[in-house]
Design goal:
CATH architecture of the largest domain: Orthogonal Bundle
Family: Belongs to the class-I aminoacyl-tRNA synthetase family. IleS type 1 subfamily.
Distance between the termini: 79 Å
Strand order of the largest sheet: 1-2
Number of domains: 2
Protein name: Isoleucine--tRNA ligase
Number of strands: 4
Catalytic activity: tRNA(Ile) + L-isoleucine + ATP = L-isoleucyl-tRNA(Ile) + AMP + diphosphate
Keywords: Aminoacyl-tRNA synthetase, ATP-binding, Ligase, Nucleotide-binding, Protein biosynthesis
CATH topology of the largest domain: Isoleucyl-tRNA Synthetase, Domain 1
GO molecular function: ATP binding; isoleucine-tRNA ligase activity; tRNA binding
């Protein structure tokens, strides 16, 4: 307890500066002060106590989630579980979520010697940050996450499809006043009711996917709505009506 107090005040250096006689007196000769470093997994595995428990907003509750790479099942996840169970008799987290690692288009590990590394900064400079974000969101993180120029090119194409659909919809909503221009569902033509139904179904599917942390399904569902249901069908059919009907 005395050692813990000194470390809390002076940091870990207090242990190295400490003379055993200062706290053990004459009994110090019966002990050997160990300078070895404790397993690093003990430090990270005890963050539920040193980080979470000291924050009042957690009010003693476990963390909602621990997020790390798939190699941490025998690392941080395990050490945290063992230490928390020993200290508190319960797990330090409600759930864990793991992700794979980034590999090249052929499934090979990124390596400078092979020359297959992809710099996020280079991608952002060339294609923009949104393309990089969309690639991350559209990739199934439960396995290895492949990235290459061709894969990023496909992400850029998907981004343009989503953006073009949004631009078309927003452009035609210019000056729209819900109080005056809103059409009741029962007064809509069948095609418009179908489009509204598609939007509602897409919203429900996307929210469900988010709740399951199924982010790549979110992107796939959004793409189906923007590119297939809207872009290739509904928005194409209504162009004549849109451009010739009285505003």
């Amino acid at each position: 307890e005395e050692v813990a107090k000194r470390v809390e005040v002076d940091g870990i250096q207090a242990w190295w500066d400490l003379d055993a006689k200062e706290i053990l007196g004459d009994e110090a000769e019966q002990y050997v002060k160990v300078p070895d470093t404790l397993d690093v997994w003990f430090d990270s595995g005890s963050t539920h106590s040193s980080v979470v428990d000291v924050r009042p907003e957690f009010a003693g509750h476990a963390a909602d989630m621990y997020l790390e790479g798939s190699d941490q099942h025998r690392g941080w996840f395990m050490s945290s579980l063992m230490i928390s169970t020993a200290m508190k008799g319960k797990a330090p987290y409600r759930q864990v979520l793991t992700h794979g690692f980034t590999v090249d288009g052929q499934g090979r590990k990124m390596s400078k010697s092979i020359g297959n590394t992809v710099s996020p900064q280079d991608v952002m400079n060339k294609l923009g940050a949104d393309i990089l974000r969309l690639w991350v969101a559209s990739t199934d993180y439960t396995g290895e996450m492949a990235v290459s120029d061709e894969i990023l090119k496909r992400a850029a194409d998907s981004y343009r499809r989503i953006r073009n659909t949004a631009r078309f919809l927003l452009a035609n909503l210019n000056g729209f006043d819900p109080a005056k221009d809103m059409v009741k569902p029962e007064e809509m033509v069948v095609l418009d009711r179908w489009a509204v139904g598609c939007a509602k179904a897409a919203q429900e599917d996307i929210l469900k996917a988010y709740e399951a942390y199924d982010f790549h399904e979110v992107v796939q569902r959004l793409m189906r709505f923007c590119s297939v249901e809207m872009g290739s069908f509904y928005l194409d059919i209504i162009k004549d009506r849109q451009y010739t009907a009285k505003a």
